[in-house]
Amino acid sequence: MDRTYIADLKPDTTCKIQGYVENLRNKRTMAFLVIKDLSGKVQVTVEKEKYPEIAAEVDKLTLDSVVTFEGPVIANEYVKLNGIEMLPTSIKIESIAEALPIQRDEIKGGKAKDLERSSIDQRLDYRWIDLRTEQNQLIFKLQTYMVKVMRDFLSDRNFLEIHSPKLIGAASESGSDVFELTYFDRKAYLSQSPQFYKQMAMASGLERIFEVGPVFRAEKSFTSKHATEFTGFDLEFSYIDSFRDVMKLEEELLTDMLTKVKEKFGDEIERLYGLEVKVPTTPFPVIKLADLYDELEKNYGYKVDDSEKGDLTTEAEKLSYKWVQEKYDHEFLFITDYDAEKRAFYHMRDENGVPMGYDLIWRGVEITTGAQREHRYDVLKAQCDEKGLTEDVKFYLEFFKYGCPPHGGFGLGVDRLTMLFLGLGIKEVMYIFRGPNRLNP
Amino acid sequence: MDRTYIADLKPDTTCKIQGYVENLRNKRTMAFLVIKDLSGKVQVTVEKEKYPEIAAEVDKLTLDSVVTFEGPVIANEYVKLNGIEMLPTSIKIESIAEALPIQRDEIKGGKAKDLERSSIDQRLDYRWIDLRTEQNQLIFKLQTYMVKVMRDFLSDRNFLEIHSPKLIGAASESGSDVFELTYFDRKAYLSQSPQFYKQMAMASGLERIFEVGPVFRAEKSFTSKHATEFTGFDLEFSYIDSFRDVMKLEEELLTDMLTKVKEKFGDEIERLYGLEVKVPTTPFPVIKLADLYDELEKNYGYKVDDSEKGDLTTEAEKLSYKWVQEKYDHEFLFITDYDAEKRAFYHMRDENGVPMGYDLIWRGVEITTGAQREHRYDVLKAQCDEKGLTEDVKFYLEFFKYGCPPHGGFGLGVDRLTMLFLGLGIKEVMYIFRGPNRLNP
Asked: Helices (DSSP H) in A345-440: which residue ranges?
């Protein structure tokens, strides 16, 4: 018999189900189990006297053991769980679980019953047990779909997928936070960003590319947003007229993605996390950094220190969410006109020296830096010299000597987007979190 | 004016095109250029006396410079290239190329005019220039689509996508070929395979998962098939009855992919590489390893050394293609019943100790190892002890203590599949190749 997903069970059929034992009440004449698979949960009711051989097997079961049951499914109005139950005629134990080392009670409406749960670090030690909850499985259903619709959006617009090397010969961009490794008889480094290689694709005439892959940051940060390894979603495209084309593509990409995610998972996200998925209107609100600081001061009395004015402070980042909601009833905000000093050397600058790029803030958290890139070798080299990076990025400068179209792009963090959808921290949202103190499992 | 892709140009329209200067004949009164974008090539004919300002710009152009042209497109039966040309009324130079440091004449019908081309290693030094050819761009069009249709096939069957960590705490499986790095105050290693973590997803109740991501091998191999970093396409799924379910999924996945790739790129692959895409029939031929050796001896006089009989020799791998073509008119061959000694400890074994797994050979090259995995903790631990690996994979064994469904899976190499489609070596097919002696660009 083929397996039926629990969510697809119908009364008055005979089915085979397979899943984890989520609950188990083993009484004298009856046993009541809740079996959970990736699609849902169902009550399995064992008539012990009628099926002594099933009863004998049920006696061996523990929570989180894995079983296969076959038998009729019937409607029963007294069963709380969807009003149906299976009355099995056969059982096969696939795997017996030892006593669980962590307590992982479910989060209700976005709030964990913290007293009953193991700490996040204890749960991460046994991540595979922690991941068996409905809430945690939604993370991966949502993320799989989110990335799929974004990839499809780009494929429909002639973007090609590249897989750029993570092993690199020179510690690029921001040398300090890079992992170094022994590469045969020399040193290599782990890529902190596919930036240089996605720009190489522009110099290769590939015109429009994206990449989904790991990025590595050797930062000793212990915030709820930082990990030493996470999944980047990066794209770059040629023949743009301005960085406004990049912003436009990004808002279209995100709006399409949010529309589809809401349609497919909006109800589940609300049920399991108590959060609404809101489809944004386009164009997204845009403001210059200096104007944002003015608004934050005028409306909330927030005063930024002069030395910090060229960049967005963490406090202003959060506060900007309040402002954009009140002013535009919007969750997204593009911020432009940062100080050249605070931006990467490869951002193209306008005639006043202002970088032609932006940050995008969603729910008060920066999710993207985007820009038109400087593709003119001489200008790029000058900007590079100015930051004293020329020696480090020599190989990269070569990409622009032999013909390169104008281009721009941006990067998103897959894990960060997922966090913001579900109101979770980075440790909770990653399949397997990596931080300065964590390399297991 | 919006840009028109060159392949979409129609006579009697006025368009804007953008691309690389592939050819340039600058005469006294006329200039003839071939402009190439990702979609195709077109002749641009400049009437120099009529447009002296265009002529002045054309005088600055070099091969592989990047330009924007606007103007009418007309039919002209004397133009070899598709019988159309653009007569530009404006030009904008986007980027001037220095003299190209490599010679990259196109491959015709699968054969390079080797005398005129730079060596592959010279071309790899300037990979971005090398990649501008139609042949090389087809690699990424094909690969993007191939991976997309395989992902879609799996999404349609409820597979979730995971991104497992590439930074790992213990040098697993085959400790010798692993890259080691400094991870703050300790050591870490680069993942050689997502094997353990995709199995962890099974213990997490995610049921069916795939991953597309980099894998790292610190092997000092200099063959046309080996790289130190490449892209793996891995999947794993629960509640299988046998490794035959894994083989079935793989043959369906590959047949679906080949059908779609042939439809979309079959003609282009034939035109640019002289190779046919052949859609396989299912089921794929299957043979036991010992029987294959018998057949190869009977048909081709190939004798395998007794000490090598438990595994497939490179010679037999190649020869098996001849055999499967002659016997079944097929390009694929499943080989089963390897020696337990030659297979990974986590392959489940039957009652006779034979691993319940397979290799899949396409065109005489192994593209997959697949198997049902041992999910029973005690049996797994015994098999692990037998290979002396228990200490190394302690963290992995834990996955099976607290409930785990029966499962199996396989892995494919994205780059290797692309190689086989196009008859290329690994250096030619990767976006940016990494080998023991190559970390650039």
From this structure: 377-386, 394-397, 414-422, 426-429
Distance, CA of A206 to CA of A441 (rounded, Å): 38
**The pTM is what?**
0.95
Q: Is B129 on the interface with A (CB under 8 A)?
A: yes
Q: Is the backbone of residue B111 left (phi > 0), alpha (psi -120 to 50) or beta?
A: beta
DSSP for A179-207, written as a single string = -EEEETTEEEEE-S-SHHHHHHHHHTT--
Residue B402's contacts (CB-CB under 8 Å, 6 or more residues apart) are A64, A97, A98, A100, A101, A126, A128, A129, B203
User: How near does any CA of chain A get to the CA of B266, in Å?
Assistant: 18
Q: How does pLDDT run across B242-271, given as a tens digit for each residue?
A: 999 999 999 999 999 999 999 999 999 999
Using the beta-carbon criterion (under 8 Å), do A401 and B97 form an inter-chain contact? yes
Q: How many CB atoms lie within 10 A of CB A80?
A: 8
* Contact between B24 and B33 (Cβ < 8 Å): yes
Distance CA A283, CA A327 (A): 14
ipTM above 0.85, yes or no: yes
Q: How far is CA B381 from CA B35, B251, B332, in A?
A: 63, 31, 34
Q: Assess whether the previous peptide bond of B72 is cis (omega < 30° from 0).
A: no
Characterize the bridge pairing of strands B111-112 and A111-112: unpaired
Q: From B417, B153, B370, B356, select the one nearest B247 (Cα to Cα).
A: B370
What tens digit of pLDDT does each residue of A400-425 get? 999 999 999 999 999 999 999 999 99
Cβ-nearest to B38 among A38, A129, A207? A207
